[in-house]
Design a protein that fits this description.
This protein has a two-stranded antiparallel sheet with strand order 1-2. The protein has one domain. The radius of gyration is 17 Å and the shape is elongated. With 101 residues, the protein is mostly helical. It has three helices and two strands, in the order H-H-E-E-H. Helix content is 74%, strand content 6%.
């Protein structure tokens, strides 16, 4: 019983840290896009390419919004919301499974 609780605790902690890192990474992409960062800059390019894999399932759901020279990338916002919902569902599922033991 204690072993399962420990495994659950470690997995939950890892999952939460990964989720927070992912949200921060996606937020950084959102801000760089919004401010019009140069995609040819090595750091910006790495961030864009690294986050593309997480954004790709949400591409083309909605059109991006332009506010003058500023871009609000809706696919990134959709990804942030989608992964938050997924995280919530996983945590709820794990809590239900934990109660069964």
């Amino acid at each position: 019983m204690k072993t399962l609780d420990k495994i659950y605790s470690i997995f939950s902690s890892f999952l939460l840290k990964f989720f927070l890192f992912l949200q921060a990474f996606l937020f950084l992409r959102l801000m760089l896009k919004f401010l019009g960062a140069n995609p040819e800059t090595p750091v910006v390019s790495i961030i864009y390419k690294g986050s593309d894999i997480f954004i790709s399932p949400f591409n083309l759901i909605f059109d991006d919004i332009y506010l003058g020279d500023f871009l609000i990338e809706i696919s990134t916002l959709s990804a942030m919301i989608g992964y938050a919902i997924l995280m919530f569902a996983i945590v709820k599922f794990l809590r239900l499974r934990r109660r069964e033991y």
